[in-house]
Amino acid sequence: MLDRLNQIYPVRYTAFFVALGLTSLSLLVFVASGQGGWMLLIFGALTAVGIYDLQQTHHAVLRNYPIIGHLRFMLEAIRPELRQYFLESETEAAPFSRAQRTLVYARAKGQSDKRPFGTQLDVSAAGYEWITHSLAPTHLHDHNFRVAIGGASCTQPYDISLFNVSAMSFGALSANAIMALNKGAYMGGFAHDTGEGSISRHHRVHGGDLIWEIGSGYFGCRDSEGRFSAERFVENALSPQVKMIEIKLSQGAKPGHGGVLLGPKVTAEIAEARGVQIGEDCVSPSSHSSFSTPLELLQFVQQLRTLSEGKPVGFKLCIGHPWEWFGMPKPCRKVRSCPTSSWWMALRVGQGRHRWSFPTTLAHPCKKACAWFTTPWWALICATRYGWVPAARSSAALTSRAPWRWARIGATVHVASCSHWAVFRHKRATVATAPRA
């Protein structure tokens, strides 16, 4: 109905035509009786505004909606006040909430700043921080918090800072950005993850500690066919600047497809760092060619640790199915070698950069992911002793299977906290014979 009306008469001009009509009527009344001059003045002014709006070329809103288009700018002008006095809660707004401002005002006026016990804050919200009580608090003599990475199988362990530079490749970032990040890592005493674009000359300028990320394209350690090259790997891995090696299993932002850096973007510097041809498409396959099962993955981890002469080696992945994660303990027990144990302190939820630990990315909601991710590594190994792997089914299975009770002491608290990531019988052959993606 409105569309048909618009074809005959533009409805958006209604306010202008009404003002024009009332101006004409007021003019007739004023001429005939000499009264209503104030009406003529008001409606004449509105008509003049409408004529100006139709002629001006600076604001499309005013040209399309003469007169009434000014309401938008009027409401935008008072929007902050409307939110502040009527819509905002006491705890929202930035950079300071109303509650914080009120507290500052009270202290500035010498008034009491004490508040009743309790809080209006959502203490379970992400980002809420608090100080945890301790029965035996201690004094910290060193505030340079670090975590030791490297178990008995690592002859070159590394004490990593809790604050590090996340994985961003040269090519995605400019040379100046890479040098700035690496200099910051050097000055701050923390590590700089290279991203899967490998180690460029710009990573080496300032000498900051490096975590070398190796993706499915094996950039920096590939042969002419794009396969893993042990010789090229050794050239970079034995550099004193490289402290750890990280295997990237899946393309988090491009699941199932891999990644492509188009040929025109492959400059001489990028080609040198990645070991590819200048001007040719640089492809990261969707999966690795050096392994296709969890067992082969762990054997590849051991190979890299040996070639790097005992440096910590781990892997990161975006978990799409819980069984992919819980499928790791069984081959770990078979090869009697695990990724560096301290590497399993990590968590990067979703695609954000909240590094709770290093280096796994979870695509599941945080609370669900934490429940089954934090299951102790040794408890999973115990659980898989009889061919049992945690996966999706009801929590009743936790107590219905005798073999799992043997490992329940260490694992139940963690796994049962997320009821639908409980335990069910998983055939032994599934882990070792999983087909290549």
What is the count of β-strands?
A: 13
Major pleated sheet: 4 strands, parallel
Mean pLDDT, nearest integer? Answer: 76
Distance between the termini: 55 Å
The CATH topology assignment of the largest domain is TIM Barrel
Helix count? 17
The CATH top-level class label of the largest domain: Alpha Beta
* The CATH H-level homologous superfamily of the largest domain: Aldolase class I
What is the gyration radius calculated from CA atoms?
Answer: 33 Å
| Broad shape | elongated
List SSEs in N-to-C order. HHHHHHEEHEEHEEHEHEEHHEEHHEHHEH
Based on the coordinates given, report the CATH architecture of the largest domain.
Alpha-Beta Barrel
Strand order of the largest sheet: 3-4-5-8
User: What low-confidence regions span 5 or more consecutive residues with pLDDT below 50?
Assistant: 340-364, 383-437
SS class: alpha/beta
**Amount of beta strand:** 5-15%
Q: Report the helical percentage.
A: 25-40%
Query: What is the count of distinct domains?
Result: 4
